[in-house]
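C-alpha cells incoming
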C-alpha cells in the first residue's frame, strides 16, 4: 500500500472493492481508446484509397477533356477551312442547322 496503515478490516475490504472497480473502469477506458485508435486508422486507410481512386479519375477526366478539346479545335479548323474554300470558289458552304 501507499504507506498508510489500515486497522479496520471492513474499510480494507471497501478499499479493495473501490480499487478493483477503479481498475476495471481504467481498463474499459483504455480498451475504448485502443478501439477508437484502430477505427481511426482504418478510416484513414479507407480515405487514402478513396483519394487515390478519385485522383486517378480526375486524371482520366482531364485526359478526356484534353482529347475532346483537341477534337473540337480540329473540327472547327476543318470546318473553317471548308467555309473559306467554299467562299473562294463561290460554292455554297456547309449549311448550319438552327
Amino acid at each position: 500500500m501507499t504507506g498508510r496503515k489500515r486497522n479496520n478490516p471492513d474499510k480494507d475490504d471497501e478499499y479493495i472493492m473501490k480499487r478493483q472497480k477503479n481498475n476495471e473502469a481504467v481498463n474499459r477506458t483504455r480498451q475504448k481508446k485502443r478501439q477508437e485508435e484502430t477505427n481511426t486508422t482504418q478510416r484513414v486507410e479507407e480515405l487514402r484509397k478513396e483519394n487515390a481512386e478519385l485522383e486517378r479519375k480526375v486524371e482520366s477526366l482531364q485526359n478526356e477533356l484534353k482529347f475532346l478539346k483537341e477534337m473540337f479545335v480540329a473540327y472547327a479548323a476543318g470546318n473553317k477551312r471548308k467555309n473559306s474554300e467554299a467562299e473562294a470558289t463561290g460554292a455554297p458552304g456547309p449549311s448550319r442547322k438552327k
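note: The two ends are 95 Å apart (CA to CA).
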